[in-house]
Design brief:
alpha/beta; Arc Repressor Mutant, subunit A; D-Maltodextrin-Binding Protein, domain 2
Length: 367
């Protein structure tokens, strides 16, 4: 009687442990939105196996499955017991209990050894896939604890791809080499829409024309627009460019609808100043390239100035000023994972290093 009670207690403890391990990793899947497909499939398989066996009234446990897996891998009870650091009778008992639980023969008994049945071979395919997934679950759990798993989805405007994002990504990758960063190169409107619809974790962009969007905007740095002039332009001798001096000048502009273009249009309209627009482009990089060719002047984001060919283009402060913040933009009340928080902190630190020119000023906002 005592032996039966002890066996029942041991079996109950095994089953509780199996359930605890399963639900622990299932919870990781549920709470980590970027869990891999392999983990999802593994949990699905384990759930089906558990529910099926539960309906049979005799729930198998993890040790039984582990013994079966080792037996199928090594071909004998003796070797399986050695790998598991158990006695041969203990492994034989676990295999017998599993065979009883599943309801179909797993082994043909020949003298002093077991031979797997065709059903066992079929069952082991599912078991081996689940074990591979289970090991991946454990690896993922450790990686999550070290903030080294998953992905971050970022939306940013084209002007900030090379000027800001590349150094931020390089620093982040050093710290989180196994985290995939997915970058979307979006216009300002598309960027805000992506954040609003929760199709990215962060956006990195300017605070002009936020419009109706209710978002969490965290300023990083303050910028003032600069005037780009071909090196041979008559106005290059002026230390500051007043917009009154730009009447009738040939201009290279961003497309209508971009926040900076909208602000420039409004500023010149209010001042009653005409500018001759000879070209429009989607990206600031293209605008700069056309200015370098000598075809016209432009009003630009100051972050492009380190990348200009100084033999072809000069830049000057503009009066009156056009100011904006570069900010991290996310959904209101967003709950950040540790990995996302790390990206945010690295972004603040890297952008805080920008002190190359007077039209860039650090924001005093706390993290």
């Amino acid at each position: 009687m005592t032996s039966i009670r002890n066996n029942a207690i041991e079996k109950s403890q095994y089953n509780k442990k199996a359930w605890s391990i399963f639900w622990f990793y299932a919870l990781l899947y549920i709470t980590e939105i970027n869990t891999t497909d392999l983990i999802k499939k593994t949990i699905s398989r384990l759930t089906k196996i558990i529910l099926f066996l539960d309906t049979q009234g005799d729930l198998m446990n993890y040790k039984q499955i582990e013994s079966f897996n080792m037996f199928m891998l090594y071909g004998s009870v003796t070797q399986a017991a050695s790998v598991m650091n158990k006695t041969q009778p203990a492994v034989s008992r676990l295999l017998s209990e599993l065979e009883k639980s599943v309801g179909f023969p797993l082994f043909i008994r020949k003298r002093n050894h077991l031979v797997a049945t065709p059903e066992a071979l079929l069952f082991h395919k599912a078991v081996s896939r689940s074990f591979i997934g289970f090991e991946e679950l454990k690896r993922q759990a450790k990686a999550i604890a070290r903030h080294q798993v998953g992905e971050i989805v970022i939306s940013t405007q084209p002007v900030y791809i090379n000027t800001l994002f590349v150094p931020i990504f390089a620093r982040f990758h050093e710290k989180h080499p196994d985290v995939c960063v997915k970058l979307h190169d979006d216009g300002h409107k598309e960027m805000l829409q992506r954040v609003s619809e929760n199709r990215c974790d962060f956006a990195l962009g300017i605070t002009l024309n936020l419009g109706f969007h209710t978002l969490d905007v965290r300023p990083l740095i303050r910028c003032q627009a600069v005037c780009l002039l071909p090196a041979a332009h008559p106005l290059v001798d002026n230390p500051v460019i007043n917009i009154q001096q730009l009447n009738g000048q040939r201009f290279i502009e961003l497309h209508i609808g971009s926040p900076l273009r909208t602000r420039v249009d409004h500023l010149f309209l209010e001042a009653g100043i005409y500018r001759h627009i000879v070209a429009e482009a989607r990206t600031m990089q293209t605008v700069c390239n056309i200015v370098e060719s000598g075809c016209g002047i432009a009003i630009a984001d100051p972050l492009v100035t380190p990348y200009l060919d100084k033999s072809k283009v000069v830049f000057r402060p503009l009066i009156p000023t056009i100011d904006w913040d570069i900010a991290i933009i996310m959904q209101e009340k967003a709950m950040l994972t540790n990995t996302e928080r790390s990206f945010y902190q690295i972004t603040r630190k890297e952008i805080g290093k920008l002190n190359t020119f007077s039209s860039i000023k650090k924001e005093g906002t706390n993290p």
